[in-house]
Structures are given as C-alpha cells and as structure tokens.
Amino acid sequence: MRATDFIYDGKKLSDFGFMIGTIDESSGSETVEVGSQITFDTSSHHSGTNWYLTGSHYDDCITFEISVCKIPCKTEDMEITSTEFRELIRWLNRKQFLLFSFVSDASIWYYASFNAQKREVDGKLYGLVLSATTNAPFGFADEVTQTLTISSANGSATFTDKSDEIGLVYPKTVITCKSAGNLKITNDMMQSPFLVNNCSSGETITLSRKTLIITTSDSKHAVCDDFNFEFFQIGNSYDNRVNTIASSLPCTIQITYRPIIKEVL
Questions:
Q1: Where among 138, 161, 180 does a domain terminate?
Q2: Same structural domain for residues 163 and 124?
Q3: Which of 18, 29, 210, 253 has the smallest CB count inside 10 Å?
Q4: Cβ within 8 Å of residue 265, ≥6 positions away
C-alpha cells in the first residue's frame, strides 16, 4: 500500500508537518533507541473485538512499521527539533489502543499504539521509525449504526452482519421500549435471549460494547436486578449473515458496531 499520511486519534500526521517517508540509508543514517518503549499485552478478552471460534485462536495481532519525516514542500529545514519530536511522541506513544487509518484508505481502521526509534544523520534527527501494535488480528470498517423498529408485541425485524469474521460480537445497543412489561429480545444467531423485566413505556436501555455494562434512563428501575446478564449479540455463520431479531414488547433497537475486515496491511 502506498500512502503519505495517516489518521490517529482524530488527527493527521500532516497536521504536525510530517509525512510517511524514508531516509536513504546510504546517507549514513543510524537508528537510535528512544527509551519509552511500551510493552503491550495483547491477550484476548470478551468485549467482542476478538471473538474466537470453537476454542481456536489467532496467534498474533497485526503489527507494522512506518517511517516518517518532515514534509519537504512545507519547510527547508528537514531536521526535527526536540519540541517537534516530543509533540509527535506525546501523540503517538500512549498506553492505549486508538483508531488508526491510512488517509489513502480510510475505510479500514485499526486500534493501535506506537513505539518509536530515531533516525539520525551525523547526530541530527531527520526521521522516526514507528512500530505499531494493534489489539486485533484484523481491521475494522467504518462504524455502522442501524435502528430496527418492532411495532407490535412479539414482532420481529432483520439485521445483516457485514463482518468478514464468522461468529458473534457485542455491539453497542440502545433499546427504547414503546410499552411497559417484561422485555425479551431474541436473535436466531444467539443461544440465549436478552431479558429485562419490569420495563416502563419510554424507558431507554443502553448496552455498552466495550465494558458490557447495562444502564437505563429510568432512575426508578433497578435494571441490574431485573437483567439476566445475557448481553445482546449480532453475528453471522458461513451460510447466513441475516439476524432475525424478535421482541416481546414493541420497541426500537439501535445497533452500532464496526464490521471486521480481513483485508489488512
């Protein structure tokens, strides 16, 4: 892939006056350790970004390297100052995975963080080698939000999962009840139903994707006492991407997630 710019945590590399580029090794450049190397624990977890099928697992998360330097047409002085270096490191070298994409292909995203090495010529800093570690063995598409409307009790609607990965994931889910009662939502892709008893008309129930926490807009409803702790999931099998979702109460179900993409770097 050819690219000259990337986006990380909502900012572009070019915003800092830098571009993707290499330093000619014949110039006598040498690599110098920065010293703030972060060790990343990339073990799997249950949030849905790393879903493993039938006990199998991926051996590694995606890693890659990028070399960066100043944009020549914006400056005649290609040497990187201490202030510029510290600003870049503060942006890129963080103890968390944040959204990353190449500007030339901003439809594929990764959750990444970076370590860095200096590239120096005659003791002067002219470039950086960025080593990226991601939190998954695949990329993600742009965020998708779709709202399903179930107009009557025991009605249903369909949702098509666009992920390349076969299996189930936890989306962010916002459910607004249109009548009072016990809420039971089933998905033919799930083994167990999602249950919350004693819901009120107009109550909004939110399921967090990352933390698997349930909250409600009704301050009088002790929702955790009425919840069966089977969080709502979407997914696909090899032969079927369509999720048939049914609800015991009329409601709207807003689903937000990033489909998994296996067309990677």
A1: 138
A2: no
A3: 210
A4: 1, 62, 64, 139
